[in-house]
Design goal:
alpha/beta; Rossmann fold
Length: 203
């Protein structure tokens, strides 16, 4: 999916790897952070419908479900109509999901559907948003080799697996097939990417 470039982008929990040209918010004043604010303190210091895109890159796995729901609701408040919420998380069956001991929540490809409006799985009463899941994708890093020649080989292998998983994600008749590929592979990182769109309706 191609998301149009817009001027106003927010990167929540950006750390030192802020999305280019975004406003970066984090609870620590790291290089690149524009606004120091705790993600568990609501509301965030921005006006309603101020952003066209909001990123949560490897952030929500650090929170329990109750706090994730609150963060989603706050993102909904901050997004313009037809704005996008882009989320990345490590797949539960990839090694990276358990390397960081501060991870509190774990996800499969289908987990994003629980936050998608009108989806049969969207039954959490704590979530009151008009967000629709419009894309589920992935990025793969199989071995995480550091040497130059081995990195090139790793990139080649990783791309093959990534294409296989993406093909499996399209198969709606076997929705867990992509997860089983990841479980069998013992990959260093399979990064899940969800793109949500704020629907052009009033709450």
């Amino acid at each position: 999916m191609i998301i149009p470039d817009r001027l106003v982008v927010l990167d929540l929990g950006c750390g030192e790897n802020k999305i280019p040209n975004a406003i970066g918010l984090d609870n620590v004043a790291l290089p690149g952070v524009d606004v120091v604010h705790d993600l568990k303190t609501f509301p965030y210091p921005f006006e309603n419908q101020q952003f066209d895109k909001i990123y949560l890159c490897h952030v929500i796995e650090h929170f329990k479900i109750k706090d994730i729901n609150k963060i989603f609701n706050e993102c909904h408040r901050l997004l313009n109509r037809n704005g996008y919420l882009i989320i990345t998380v490590p797949h539960v069956f990839s090694i990276s999901a358990f390397i960081d001991p501060t991870h509190k929540s774990f996800f499969t490809f289908g987990s994003g559907e629980f936050w998608s409006k009108n989806n049969i799985k969207a039954y959490y009463t704590e979530i009151n948003t008009d967000l629709k899941l419009v894309e589920t994708s992935c990025r793969v890093n199989w071995f995480d080799w550091k040497r130059y020649r081995m990195k090139k080989l790793n990139n080649w292998f990783s791309k093959i697996i990534e294409l296989r998983i993406k093909k499996a994600l399209i198969n709606k008749n076997n929705p867990s097939f992509a997860d089983r590929i990841v479980k069998r592979g013992a990959f260093q990182l399979v990064e899940i990417k969800w793109v949500f769109k704020k629907l052009n309706t009033e709450l």
